[in-house]
Design a protein that fits this description.
The chain folds into 2 domains: about 300 residues, Methylamine Dehydrogenase, Chain H (7 Propeller); about 110 residues. The protein is about 25% helix and about 30% strand. The protein contains 10 helices and 28 strands. β27 and β28 form a beta hairpin. The radius of gyration is 34 Å and the shape is elongated. One of its GO terms (cellular component) is nucleolus. Keywords: Nucleus, Repeat, rRNA processing, WD repeat.
């Protein structure tokens, strides 16, 4: 009796994920640590000086975390209501935050009570930041105002009332100590100069602006709102350079890495996209459990912190690079030790002893060997195989069809099993590698279960889905054939024109030769 030959699963080419240097780099972050806060996290800001602690604003508290601590090392809770946008000063010694009651609090990182309290806004303040001279604060609130404050005297310097909706984001220039930018739900981004009484530039984003970011050079501005991330050239009067639409929901936060070569954006679609700032193409992406509200990257790019709507803080640390210089490792045998003798060819007088290789059969192969067709089909219709390796399911179907037992394996199934079969066929029948086999399976299922159509709403729904999928694919193929016909016509026209040009050139050349000879 011949030995059983396992089912051959055809190897289909897969596009897969392209492995780049960016992929390897961003995968170098360890498994995240998750910390539960008291409410939605609206702002995360890293201290610009070592040891790079970060401030997390959630609910009515501001928590300061160490880079590797899972418990807050300091808490500021002197707020009557919700706190917003806790931001460090460039020297890491002061922290400013807005609040629901319209006041702005200035804290010393080493203390507890506010050093200064700025009163002037009539509605919640969602935007607070320091100008680069370290002695002034800008703010924006739901009263449509953008204010500038003097820290030593705790007084208002100037107030701009140019926005027509809530001011929800802002940033300051690192190059010019008088320039700051605010973004509003009125779809505009405005650039202010503290020496002027009105804004010096207005940019139309087109959607409610959720976040703005200025490059360290001060020449490029990034705005996020709706599903769009847009890059503007400030030096050219706010000219749009590129508009990116890689998210499926509203983009809520932006961040740059330390070198300024990678731009990160977080969105309510639970993704963080990483762009190259040279090509503005997505080079990597992170997935999270829930919608993202805030995002921050440490000054040394060692830590990524993401805040979500459910109050969970997700912290990823970069894996430390192994240093082999000082470590005394036990010397391992050279590679040639392991491969020694593998290429040896036996001589005529040698006696060869072959080691028997035990063949391990998979579950469906064991069932096929014992001619249990229906159970073999059930084994490959399990969700893990259907979802991740559909080629195995189709290969078993093909083997059953070759044996002539596919029809009997498909027959005699209950409502749940028929629903599973039709779901798989409707989903995979449009894939070219599976189409020939699954069309045969669909025909058999239709013939077998046609008498019971109308008895089960679930099965009827799956039949309709299968019909819709095949109908769409037929329409798609017809459109492609039309396009192919158009392209053939164009190529034929180009070829004819080229032949005509060559003939004209040849005739012109011959005429010139005759004229030369005559002369």
């Amino acid at each position: 009796m011949a030995a059983y030959k396992p089912v051959v699963v055809p190897a289909c080419p897969k596009l897969g994920e392209r492995i780049t240097q960016d992929t390897l780099y961003w995968r170098g972050y360890k498994t995240p640590v998750q910390i539960k806060e008291f409410g939605a996290i609206n702002k995360i800001d890293f201290s610009p000086v070592p040891p790079y602690n970060y401030a997390v604003t959630a609910s009515s508290r501001i928590h300061i975390y160490g880079r590797y601590s899972q418990e807050p090392i300091k808490t500021f809770s002197r707020f009557r209501d919700a706190a917003y946008c806790a931001t460090y000063r460039d020297d890491g010694r002061l922290l400013a935050a807005g609040s629901e009651d319209g006041s702005i609090c200035l804290f010393d990182v080493g203390g507890k009570a506010p050093l200064r309290q700025f009163e002037g806004h009539t509605k919640p303040v969602h935007v607070v930041g320091f100008l680069s001279d370290k002695y002034r604060i800008f703010s924006g609130g739901d009263d449509y105002c953008s204010n500038l404050w003097d820290i030593p005297s705790a007084t208002e310097i100037i107030s701009y009332s140019e926005h027509t909706d809530y001011v929800r984001c802002g940033c300051a220039s690192k190059v010019n100590a008088d320039v700051f930018i605010t973004g509003s739900y009125d779809h505009t981004v405005k650039l202010f100069d503290a020496r002027m009484k009105s804004s010096v530039m207005t940019i139309e984003h087109g959607h409610p602006v959720e976040s703005v970011l200025l490059f360290p050079s001060g020449g490029l501005l990034v705005s996020a709102g709706g599903r769009y991330v847009k890059v503007w050239d400030v030096l050219k009067g706010g000219q749009l350079l590129v508009s990116l639409k890689n998210h499926h929901k509203t983009v809520t936060c932006l961040c740059l890495n330390s070198s300024g070569q990678r731009l990160l954006s977080g969105s309510l679609d639970r993704h963080v996209k990483i762009y190259s700032t040279t090509s503005y193409k997505v080079v990597h992406s992170f997935n999270y459990a829930t919608s993202i509200l805030s995002l921050a990257l440490s000054p040394e790019d060692e830590t990524i912190v993401v805040g979500m709507t459910n109050g969970v803080l997700n912290v990823k640390h970069r894996k430390p690079e192994e240093k082999n210089e000082n470590s005394q490792k036990k010397r391992q045998p050279a590679y040639r030790t392991y491969v020694k003798g593998r290429t040896y060819m036996p001589k005529q007088e040698d006696f060869c002893v072959s080691k028997p290789v035990k063949r391990v059969l998979r579950k469906y192969d064991k069932l096929l060997r014992s001619f249990q067709s229906s159970k073999a089909l059930d084994a490959v219709l399990e969700p893990p195989i259907m979802l991740h390796t559909p080629e195995v399911t189709v290969a078993v179907m093909q083997e059953l069809h070759r044996r002539g037992t596919l029809r009997s394996a498909l027959a005699g199934r209950d409502e749940k099993q028929v629903n599973l079969l039709l779901t798989f066929v409707a989903r995979r029948v449009i894939e070219p590698r599976f189409t020939p086999m699954l069309v045969t399976v669909a025909d058999m299922i239709t013939d077998i279960y046609q008498p019971v159509v109308g008895q089960s709403a679930i099965v009827d729904k799956q039949f309709l889905k299968l019909q819709e999928a095949i109908g769409k694919e037929i329409d798609y193929q017809e459109e492609l054939l039309e396009v192919l016909g158009m392209m053939d016509t164009l190529f034929a026209t180009f070829t004819k024109k080229r032949d005509t040009c060559l003939e004209e050139n040849k005739s012109n050349g011959l005429t010139e030769i005759i004229e030369t000879n005559t002369n």
